Write the structure tokens for this entry.
Amino acid sequence: MNFEAIMDYDISLPVLEDLDGYKELIYVLPSSDESQKEALERMAGYFKKEFRYDHLQYCKENHSENCIGILFAERAMDIVKDEDEYHYPNRVVGGACFGKKESGEFFLDWVWLHPFSRNHKKLSSNWPKFQKKFGQFTVTAPLSAHMASFLKKYEQQAQLSVPHVLQSNNTSYSQP
């Protein structure tokens, strides 16, 4: 058995404990804590591995003003300290990045959720929040089958306004 191949698929989810409460979404900006940027970079690494990209979609050292990262989080109840009523650990279960074009419009460059967190409405329940924050944004192609299905499903149900898909993204906001 090739254990190196098995280890390549390990997914370790970071826990953020310094957020003053439980958060479902954590926005990662250039001024954000290093731990949040590292968590976002780790999610970008999992995205890269799963979709066999040749580069990271987000690199913490190159986080520019044109990039707003998003961490999807859940309560890490398995590590709550009973004796501390102010202990709020947040386990990061996914990430995404929005980029800003020169025109000021936003685009969703990538989204990755842990396989166990998919199909739990993490994206659909937060989609209206993204639309409120980023306006009528576009989505960068290529799309995974899951993302294409997500966009098609919600367009048909008219529950969410579905953005147009960009065929390519020439804007570099986080790469060296």
Observations:
- The chain is about 30% helix and 20% strand.
- The radius of gyration is 17 Å.
- Confidence is low (pLDDT under 50) at residues 168-176.
- Residues 34-51 form the longest helix (18 residues).
